[in-house]
């Protein structure tokens, strides 16, 4: 069984439609089942994402999973609707530097949580087959919507991040602790600076549809 996770209702709806996941299951969040797969709508933020991933991994024990959703670009070369295949993700708002840790480094001693290389390669092949612009990179995750250009530039410089969002690193941290293969893929909606809120709303549905196409290609 493959599990798909998405935070926003629009993202999850696009996945459910693309994957024909129509059977609603009992869970603390919207969860639907299709043939050989699950689609979980985690809700926004790191805690919501971590809770949903842990619940699905514990209860259903999928063989692999993908966390799909949207993100704001930190790399100015990324354009709206481009796909970013996250090789790794960091929680940019974790700060244990008074204890000698690097910025974003968790108490586990891990700063960057990785996507599964094999699943990332599958996503890369699927995007290429669909003709969708996609490249690899680094994602920064935090519990705040980033709409300030100077802070976006600081995060890019500090973590080498190409995009910013609110769930990915937490989901990958849970997968890391469970030793579960998961890949994180993001579609760009905005530039994570002034105007980000309007761009996010404008491109959310189109980006979600693109992620639905990718998800369907991953199970075909």
UniProtKB/TrEMBL annotation:
- The chain positions of domain Nucleoside phosphorylase read 2-220
**InterPro entries, alphabetized:** MTA_SAH_Nsdase, Nucleoside_phosphorylase_d, Nucleoside_phosphorylase_sf
List the SUPFAM superfamilies hit by this protein, alphabetically.
Answer: Purine and uridine phosphorylases
Ribonucleoprotein keyword on record:
no
Recorded GO molecular functions are: adenosylhomocysteine nucleosidase activity; methylthioadenosine nucleosidase activity
Q: Which pathway does the UniProt entry assign to this protein?
A: Amino-acid biosynthesis; L-methionine biosynthesis via salvage pathway; S-methyl-5-thio-alpha-D-ribose 1-phosphate from S-methyl-5'-thioadenosine (hydrolase route): step 1/2
The EC designation for this entry is: 3.2.2.9
Q: Which UniProt keywords apply?
A: Amino-acid biosynthesis, Glycosidase, Hydrolase, Methionine biosynthesis
| Gene symbol of the encoding locus | mtnN
Instruction: Tell me the enzyme class.
Output: hydrolase
Q: Identify this protein by name.
A: adenosylhomocysteine nucleosidase
In terms of superkingdom, the source organism counts as Bacteria
The record's Pfam families line, in alphabetical order, gives: PNP_UDP_1
Q: Which organism is it from?
A: Thermus composti
